[in-house]
From TrEMBL, chain A:
NCBIfam families per UniProt: chap_CCT_beta (TIGR02341), thermosome_beta (NF041083)
Protein's UniProt name: CCT-beta
Species: Zizania palustris
One Pfam family here: Cpn60_TCP1
Alphabetized PANTHER family for the sequence: CHAPERONIN
Lineage: Eukaryota, Viridiplantae, Streptophyta, Embryophyta, Tracheophyta
Functional description taken from the UniProt entry: Molecular chaperone; assists the folding of proteins upon ATP hydrolysis. Known to play a role, in vitro, in the folding of actin and tubulin.
Entry's family note: Belongs to the TCP-1 chaperonin family.
Keyword terms, alphabetized: ATP-binding, Chaperone, Cytoplasm, Nucleotide-binding
GO terms for cellular component: chaperonin-containing T-complex
Subcellular location: Cytoplasm
PROSITE patterns the UniProt entry points to: TCP1_1 (PS00750), TCP1_2 (PS00751), TCP1_3 (PS00995)
Entry's Gene Ontology molecular function annotations: ATP binding; ATP hydrolysis activity; ATP-dependent protein folding chaperone; unfolded protein binding
Keyword Cytoplasm on entry: yes
Automatic annotation (TrEMBL), chain B:
NCBIfam families from the UniProt entry: chap_CCT_delta (TIGR02342), thermosome_alpha (NF041082), thermosome_beta (NF041083)
Role: Molecular chaperone; assists the folding of proteins upon ATP hydrolysis. Known to play a role, in vitro, in the folding of actin and tubulin.
CDD domains hit by this protein: TCP1_delta (cd03338)
Protein name as annotated: T-complex protein 1 subunit delta
One cellular component term from this protein's GO annotations in UniProt: cytoplasm
UniProt similarity note: Belongs to the TCP-1 chaperonin family.
InterPro entries listed in its UniProt record: Chap_CCT_delta, Chaperone_TCP-1, Chaperonin_TCP-1_CS, Cpn60/GroEL/TCP-1, TCP-1_chaperonin, thermosome_alpha
Primary site of residence: cytoplasm
GO MF assignments: ATP binding; ATP hydrolysis activity; ATP-dependent protein folding chaperone; unfolded protein binding
A Pfam family assignment: Cpn60_TCP1
Length: 491, 533
């Protein structure tokens, strides 16, 4: 007599069908991003159906997955995993989804063999433990030797960039990224690295600039260069001082009084400017508009005034110069001013920008990206962001591994041994885990157009020997020594 | 290298399901080629123009030859086609000219790429070889380049003429090219000789006359009449000009206000006070010796009222009102003065000086012209005339292209021969280089090198000549070592193009080949289209 438990649109699935639906959904997602894996992976066009019909071309798994329309709940879980990987580490977003998909594929086969899902889970857990331990044992750490560490970082950056659009200039950009990250001196706060995109020129014209660049021009009649700058950062309206009550009116009885009121308004603005000048500053940056009258007052006092700075720029500027963002100017003593050595106007391409150098927070720097078109610049920014995330994580946790499918094969070998030692149905699950792991180098080889079955079997044979450092070299199309080729990635 | 070729030959044993990938790639390439074919006929001095109608019931019509304009007006849906439109825009931003060339090149490269892919090459291999091709091609172009100096006005005029030759206004190129060159040279800042900011050159359009009446003005013009309503002066010599950003009108507070009157005597008093207020302001203005006033448009209240205009006219001050806020920077730079935001700050040192300010009639409207500016800033103004709006618009676009060409020369002081010569030279040298390479790369580069010959082919086709005969003869002459042999469309044969004064800046060709290669690489690497939020 249970009537309608669920609402009209709701659907309930149980047992077999539910599991099937989850599997299929997750595997569909994994198959979608499979072809972007590896240095020879392909890109995808994301065509938005929303306003603007914008087009994005990208190789980054997290970007592709974040923008999909997804119904299937299991697939949504996969997308979340990718996002978490992106937030935590920055790279490997595609690998994690592909691995999850492969594991589910193997698990489906096991379920069809009538193995209970809990057994499978237990088996997978044991396998995962064993795999992690195997990796940690084999990880290398070059923290002591700073030269080797730097070359490690370069190699990591190049590995990350090799599957992206920057792959053609990867040494140049790897160098750039490593310099930027080393300046951070161990903090993972990537906020202080600003990436500025300016169309024009080519990718090779990008450069790293110590100091901070604001994408604004200096106002008219103001000094173009200031040394030993004291900066006041504000977020206040400098055009008119309206009373924020709707419908407020002033009633007077003669024109002279109106003139007086107008004069009073101007006086108010003048006083405000005087108060600001009274802070002893020589540079004033406002997030909102600075209209003509106060602009002229500032120019007369020889103060650099910048208006309409965007919000992100203001926050970063405050962070970088050590100043507070203020809205009232009554207590000059309690306000912290920003400091920097030189402020000047520079030209990049044909645009004029303002450059703050010698800032208090020495970790800040700006990477200026130049490129042919918006698409190229967007993809370059995403790739560089990935590389920077990975590098900053490495600076914290300095253990590294060889790449090119090597860690997967090492883990697979250890897990196979564990499977042989374990009695019971769990061992089937453990074997399945190992097979899933080996799928990653298989896919990389497939994307490169090589004979994957052949290469994997060769790799397995190599790894059977102790202390092997063999992995797939997609450039030569065969098994190669990863130590020599310098293909390195982070633990 | 032997191991590499051995490894690649084993590839054929695998089975890979690539149907969807090939479909998407095929669709992308077809779409991009369709776009390239659409603009092919506009290339070269005998290229045709396109008429583009847009808007409701085709209200808005544009006639143009400029590739970037055509592509940006076409409403393209397919993403690969839109990438080509963006390619043209980037070429416009980078070099200004060669926007049609770059799209035609990209289309031809994609056609070859399709052949390569169906022959079994991996797209990444093709993309990599394209990158190497682009680097090598730029080197070859540099070896063909001829250096010039900015003082060599003739060469500059020649390149500007070549850029204008393919446009509607080509028969006026002997007038427009020297104008463009003079304008550009007057703007170059000797402190930064490699930079030419085109925002310092204003081009103003006025209907009437013919393109012959276009002129370069050593001064400033405003597309507005001097204010006549109060009978003010329309011609002032030895002018002292003030640019003001405040309002000469009765006081109005920023808060809403209303004046309450309780008896009729007060009304009189109000009118009198208003008059005195404005009179005071005008007196101050006059006292500084200013006799020309440029008033910025104000959103807060009326910039001037009839009463203030009357007083200003009585004080013999010429008034130009409604100047836009973003024009202020250009104006102050030219007049070498500072804008004044408040009547209190009205000082002598903020005024600009000019020899003559007058209102002239141009066509059937009047404009205000300021000439003989003392300490004029490094800017230039051009007045474009034409018999109808479409001609004027196209003339402005062509002038922009010519100015960009000169900007390229300022950036990179090298010239290169035109008329298809650089493309054939690149094609032949790259083919020779491909023979020295091995494997898939050699095959790819050979195909792509042949793709470059599409430019002289199209030039000949558009000129009505037999393209195959022309291109083979061109190849012959280049093989004999005549690097500067090109297609002479006037005579219909191959001659030494340099002697015909058909030259283009090196930057146009190098940026065309680099951008085209980059765009084609991106399209090749795409294997799926996903619709997203």
């Amino acid at each position: 007599m249970v009537d309608r438990l669920l609402k009209d649109d709701a659907v309930q699935e149980k047992g077999e069908r539910a599991r099937m639906a989850s599997f299929i959904g997750a595997m569909a997602i994994a198959d979608l991003v499979k072809t972007t894996l590896g240095p020879k992976g392909m890109d995808k066009i994301l065509q938005s159906t929303g306003r603007g019909r914008s087009v994005t071309v990208t190789n980054d798994g997290a970007t592709i997955l974040k923008s999909l329309h997804i119904d299937n709940p299991a697939a949504k879980v996969l997308v979340d995993i990718s996002k978490v990987q992106d937030d935590e580490v920055g790279d490997g977003t595609t690998s994690v989804v592909v691995l999850a998909g492969e594991l589910l594929r193997e698990a489906e086969k096991l379920v069809n063999m009538k193995i209970h899902p809990m057994t499978i889970i237990a088996g997978f857990r044991m396998a995962a433990e064993c795999a992690r331990n195997a990796l940690l044992l084999k990880a290398m750490d070059n923290k002591e030797d700073s030269d080797k560490f730097r070359s490690d970082l370069m190699n990591i950056a190049m590995t990350t960039l090799s599957s992206k659009i920057l792959s053609q200039d990867k040494e140049y950009f790897a160098d750039l990224a490593v310099d930027a990250v080393l300046r951070l001196k161990g903090s993972t706060n990537l906020e202080s690295i600003q990436i500025l995109k300016k169309p024009g020129g080519s990718l090779k014209d990008s450069f790293l600039d110590e100091g901070f660049i604001l994408d604004k021009k200096i106002g008219l009649g103001q000094p173009k260069r200031i040394e030993n700058a004291k900066i006041l950062i504000a977020n206040t309206a400098m055009d008119t001082d309206k009373v924020k009550i709707y419908g407020a009116r002033v009633r007077v009885d003669s024109m002279a009084k109106v003139a007086e009121i107008e004069g009073a308004e101007k006086q108010k603005m003048r006083e405000k400017v005087q108060k600001i000048i009274g802070h002893g500053i020589n540079c004033f940056i406002n997030r909102q508009l600075i209209y003509n009258f106060p602009e002229e007052l500032f120019a007369d006092a020889g103060i650099l005034a910048i208006e309409h700075a965007d919000f992100e720029g203001i926050e970063r500027l405050g962070l970088v110069t050590g100043g507070d963002i203020t809205s009232t100017f009554d207590n000059p003593e309690s306000v912290k001013l920003g400091h920097c050595k030189v402020i000047e106007e520079i030209m990049i391409g044909e645009d004029r920008l303002i450059h703050f150098s010698g800032v208090q927070m020495g970790q800040a720097c700006t990477i200026v990206l130049r490129g042919a078109s918006e698409h190229v610049l967007d993809e370059a920014e995403r790739s560089l962001h990935d590389a920077l995330c990975v590098l900053s994580q490495t600076v914290n946790d300095t253990r590294v591994l060889h790449g090119g499918g090597w860690p997967e094969m090492v883990m697979a070998k250890e897990i196979d041994e564990l499977a042989r030692k374990t009695p019971g149905k769990k061992s089937h699950a453990i074997e399945a885990f190992s097979r899933a792991l080996q799928a990653i180098p298989t896919i990389i080889a497939d994307n490169a157009g090589l004979d994957s079955a052949d290469l994997i079997s060769q790799l397995r044979a190599e790894h059977h020997k102790e202390q092997s450092t063999a992995g797939i070299d997609v450039i030569s199309g065969s098994v190669g020594d990863m130590k020599e080729l310098g293909d390195i990635r982070v633990v | 290298m032997a191991a590499a070729s051995a490894a690649q030959s084993r590839k054929t044993e695998t089975y890979t399901d690539t149907k969807r990938r090939d479909d998407v790639r095929g669709v992308n390439i077809a779409a991009a080629r369709a776009v390239a074919d659409a603009v092919r006929t506009s290339l070269g001095p005998r290229g045709m123009d396109k008429m583009i109608s847009s808007g409701d019931q085709a209200q808005e019509v544009i006639i143009t030859n400029d590739g970037a304009t055509i592509l940006s007006r076409m409403s393209l849906l397919q993403p690969a086609a839109r990438m080509l439109a963006e390619l043209s825009r980037s070429q416009d931003a980078a070099a200004g000219d060669g926007t049609t060339t770059v799209v035609v090149l990209a289309g031809s490269l994609l056609r070859r790429a399709q052949t390569l892919l169906s022959a079994g090459a991996h797209p990444t291999a093709a993309a990599d070889s394209l990158h190497r091709l682009a680097t090598r091609a730029v080197e070859i172009l540099h070896s063909m380049a001829i250096p010039i100096e900015l003082s060599d006005r003739d060469s500059l005029v020649k390149s500007a003429s070549t850029a204008l030759n393919s446009k509607v206004v080509s028969q006026y190129s002997s007038l427009l090219s020297p104008l463009a060159v003079d304008a550009a040279l007057s703007v170059v800042d000797p402190a930064h000789p490699e930079i030419l900011d085109l925002r310092d050159i204003r081009v103003m359009k006025k209907l009437g006359g013919t393109v012959d009446d276009t002129e370069l003005i050593h001064g400033l013009i405003f597309d507005k009449k001097a204010s006549h309503s109060a009978g003010g002066p329309t011609r002032i010599e030895n002018a002292k000009i003030a640019v003001i950003q405040f309002q000469v009108s009765p006081p109005k507070t920023d808060i809403e206000q209303s004046v309450i009157v309780s008896d009729y005597a007060q009304m009189d008093r109000i009118l009198r006070e208003e008059r005195n207020y404005i009179l005071g302001m005008v007196k101050k203005i006059k006292a500084s010796g200013c006799n020309v006033l440029l008033i910025q448009k104000s959103i807060l209240r009326d910039a001037v009222t009839d009463l203030s205009l009357h007083y200003l006219a009585k004080a013999k001050i010429l008034v130009v009102k409604d100047v836009e806020r973003d024009e202020i920077e250009f104006i102050t730079k030219t007049l070498n003065c500072l804008p004044i935001a408040n009547i209190e700050h009205f000082r002598q040192d903020k005024l600009g000086h000019a020899g003559l300010v007058e209102e002239v009639s141009v066509g059937d409207t009047k404009i205000v012209k300021i000439t003989g500016i003392k300490d004029m800033g490094r800017t230039a103004t051009m007045l474009v005339r034409g018999s109808n709006q479409l001609v004027i618009d196209e003339a402005e676009r062509s002038l922009h292209d010519a100015l960009c060409v000169i900007r390229c020369l300022v950036n990179k002081r090298f010239l290169i021969a035109g008329g298809g010569a650089p493309e054939i030279e690149m094609s032949m040298q790259l083919a020779a280089w491909a023979k020295e390479l091995q494997g898939m790369e050699s095959y790819c580069i050979k195909e792509f090198a042949e793709a470059l010959q599409v430019i002289p082919y199209t030039l000949a086709e558009n000129a009505g000549l037999n393209p195959i005969t022309i291109v083979t003869e061109l190849r012959n002459r280049h093989a004999k070592g005549e690097k500067n042999a090109g297609i002479n469309v006037r005579k219909g044969q191959i001659t030494n193009i340099l002697e015909e004064n058909v030259v283009q800046p090196l930057l146009v060709s190098t940026s065309a080949i680099t951008l085209a290669c980059e765009c084609v690489r991106m399209i090749l690497k795409i294997d799926d289209i996903v619709t997203v939020r």
